[in-house]
Design goal:
single chain; D-amino Acid Aminotransferase, Chain A, domain 1; about 30% helix; about 25% strand; alpha+beta; two-stranded antiparallel ribbon; 2 domains; 6 helices; 12 strands; about 220 residues
Amino acid sequence: NGLAAILTIADRLSFDSPRHIGISRGHRIPSKYEKELLRKIETIVVGVVEALGVKEGPLYIQLLYGEKGLVVNEAALRIGGAFEEITIEESTGFSIMEAVIEGALGRDYSFDPVEIQKRRTSPDFFSVELFFVKEGLVSSLTPMENIRLLPGVLAGDYYIKKKERMKNIENATARAGYLVVKGDSIQQLEKRREFIYQKMQVLDEYENNLVIRGGRI
């Protein structure tokens, strides 16, 4: 019906780059700017929906925030690429993936924006780790099934394998894997991230751990 409901507002964390907005190393949810900028974001969302004539389906909006305030960098009819289907369902109870599939098949799906907004204000904190490794030959990896058993880990996997030679990081295709981590507070979330990076190892032939730890969230 053309009415948008904000499901999540995330901070995109990145490695600095002099040429563009940087290579994303993860997302922090909720955004630390959410309380400050929520009304402005809501206004922008309404404007984007009207400008694009969106009536139904997912809408991903990437905003840049700086000296000029909030600027729309991207608006697309898609689910975000940082495992939003996991964090949205975990924080709101709404399965956006199921809704998109059902909608594409012309079927009805349940969507209660009022209930979603109530649940979205609950104190859940998430970190989506899009992790990288240093250059080197991968000799061994901590089994991901072990990592997924650690406190707060909702999902995770490697994109790399043993005997693969990792090259210099030039863009997002160099990612070594991902993790979705949940905490009851930002402090608990940070402790869980630290514990995960202590346990997760990608070793080269000289027993050096190649995993690049993401900075603090």
